Task: structure prediction
Amino acid sequence: MAVAEYSKLFVVLMGIGTVFFGLICIIFLTMIMGKVMVSMQPKQQPTKAGDTMAEVKKVAEAHPQTSDAVSQDVLAVIMAVLSEEQGTSSRGWNITSIKKSI
Result:
């Protein structure tokens, strides 16, 4: 039984071609799955900086203060807005002072 001999160049080109074909398939699969996952998520309106400030003002108006201290609800809203804008978690944050402006 005769064994077929392939040249080294053919083996190298076949290996490179196989790898690139596999990578291209992975790219298309990732693009398709990305579109499927985006279509499955509920639509959310992008928030603007003015919208988030309006939300903070609404919460502040809903909870009037008799002193200069900021309530825990307003503090939670401020922390949520800041962490959303920066895209990070607010767990490690330490707020030392919040003062109301007139």
Summary: The chain is about 60% helix and 0% strand. The radius of gyration is 28 Å. Residues 8-40 form the longest helix (33 residues).
